Amino acid sequence: MIGVRKAFEEIHQYGVNISTHLFKQSDPKTFNTETKLILENNPEGVVLAPFFLRESKEFIEELMKRNIPYVFIDSNLNECCKLSFIGQNSFQSGTLAAKLLDYSVPAEASILILHFAKQLDNMNHLVQREKGFYEYFSKNRPESKRKLITREIADPTSEESQNVIKTLLQTNPEILGIFVTNSQVYYLANILEELNLTNIRVIGHDLINENISFLKKGIVDFLICQRPEEQGYNAIITLFEHLILKKEVKSENYTSIDIITKENVDYYK
Amino acid sequence: MIGVRKAFEEIHQYGVNISTHLFKQSDPKTFNTETKLILENNPEGVVLAPFFLRESKEFIEELMKRNIPYVFIDSNLNECCKLSFIGQNSFQSGTLAAKLLDYSVPAEASILILHFAKQLDNMNHLVQREKGFYEYFSKNRPESKRKLITREIADPTSEESQNVIKTLLQTNPEILGIFVTNSQVYYLANILEELNLTNIRVIGHDLINENISFLKKGIVDFLICQRPEEQGYNAIITLFEHLILKKEVKSENYTSIDIITKENVDYYK
Q1: What are the extents of the domains in chain A?
Q2: Where are the beta strands (DSSP E) in B104-168?
Q3: How far away is chain A from the Cα of B48, in angstroms, using its nearest Cα?
């Protein structure tokens, strides 16, 4: 929201108003409620994180009927007539995660890919990250016998799910690397800390406080990040340039794919 | 220079003039020639990369006599009364390089630290990087028997030096990781390519074209970078704020320590 506010300060003199609507990443219903409210307000343009595939498509169809331009942030849907996408290349960030774990884990060890998500097929950017991850190994290590194991865990807060993960790790001690495909890597870090499993390399996404804390403890090794304030800022400015200045805008605007470790986190801006 | 030009555009309306002086990183004499010219111009403030320790100190003494404030970029000298330092924490970037090689190279392999520099003791930031590198291992791997080997090569362009490196690598096949402490890692990459040594992990500094090319080929694995245009911009603005706006400025302003690989280089801005 810092980037959105910064953009608003620059453009509010043009009579632009911004209203913000938040949804829960764990609940597509909250997404639906907010998109209904947005449509009632009949905005001239929309910036949208198309987090849930199905619900986003319904919303987009309605925007298109009404000729309301929309900019995607965070996650990209290729099949839609968006004005622009601003965010990370999810496939490529998956490839990077694979390289870091490939380098960090002995050649004969197994690697676990963990999705903390309900209805994974509804979450395009996580699917893209997984695809990029597998692509790295099939392209760079075609001869390797390394085992890659993928698991989906709908609710990492439940005791049942946590026990599933614990059993998985205890019965497969050859798993020495874990990639969590979203920002919820701290749930896994909690389990690793509890089990005192210190020899597993862990990589996740996003610089949220819980993750930073496990990064500094050395339980999470790498976090892949982007500069979220840049995303919000660029999305609003893109919409403004299209609607008010009638300028042509870039249809894809990829943000950086940053690697954060314990050693450089304090210098990251 | 992009950052310097951007800063100049913002402040030239205040009647500020900027003159730029370049020196060769391989030749302290060119540094001396330029600092003499600068002193003849008697500027109101100086932005300076104190690349050569002795020559920088002489120059600084003269600036201090004349009460001319100066801002360091790129490399820091702790003992001087600078107005501000803007750049990377060299010690910490050395620590990060050590972590990346520690993770990428088998526990029993040796690691070579290569300085491509004449008179290393005159080059503070390379010394700091090496210190940070060793500190990582002594702190995190106190029990390890891993061998760290440091070599100084005055002139990586000479055939003699290149033969020294070739012999070193061929007689020490247990060296599976190499850290080049500055931007000249491409000289090493050339040798590795020639000898077809594909199983050595290599880390260096700075996104110059020669390095990017070897990064994309997979011969250099990691480059540690900063955003140089940010440095130039911030240095000029800092001096401006001090001299013209009479504002208090921060005495240390560390830039980010970015990790660039083949996988994220195209998204780095």
Answers
A1: 2-88+227-256, 90-225
A2: 110-116, 148-153
A3: 22
Dump pLDDT digits (tens) for A11-70: 988 889 999 999 988 788 999 999 999 999 999 999 999 888 889 999 999 999 999 999
What would the two tokens of residue A43 be? 């905005």
- The whole-number pLDDT of residue B80 equals 67
Percent of chain A topping pLDDT 90: 77
State which H helix or E strand residue B193 sits in: helix B185-195
- Comparing CB atoms, the residue among B92, B103, B258 nearest residue A103 is B103
**Interval B155-166: pLDDT, tens:** 999 999 999 999
Which of A90, A152, A91, A74 has the alpha carbon at shortest distance from A117? Answer: A152
In CATH, which superfamily holds the domain spanning B2-88+226-256? Response regulator (3.40.50.2300)
Buried b / exposed e along B179-203 (16+ C-beta atoms within 10 A): bbbbbbbbbbbebbeeeebeebbbb
CATH 3.40.50.2300 applies to domain A2-88+227-256: yes
B89 interfaces chain A, CB cutoff of 8 Å: yes
Cα–Cα dist A14/A21, whole Å? 22
- Which of B96, B263, B267 has the CB atom closest to A99's CB atom? B263
Q: Which CATH superfamily is domain A90-225 in?
A: Response regulator (3.40.50.2300)
Give the CA radius of gyration of chain B.
20
CA dihedral (B132, B90, B211, A128) positive or negative:
positive
The interface residues of chain B toward chain A in range 11-50, judged by CB-CB distance below 8 A, are none
Same fold, A2-88+227-256 and A90-225: yes
Portion of chain A with pLDDT greater than 70, in percent: 99
HEC assignment per residue over B197-248: CCCCEEEEECCCHHHHHHHHHCCCCEEEECCHHHHHHHHHHHHHHHHCCCCC
Per residue in B115-143, pLDDT tens? 998 877 777 889 999 999 999 999 999 99
Are A256 and B269 in contact (CB < 8 Å)? Answer: yes
**Which residue of A95, A254, A264 is in closest CB contact with B257?**
A264
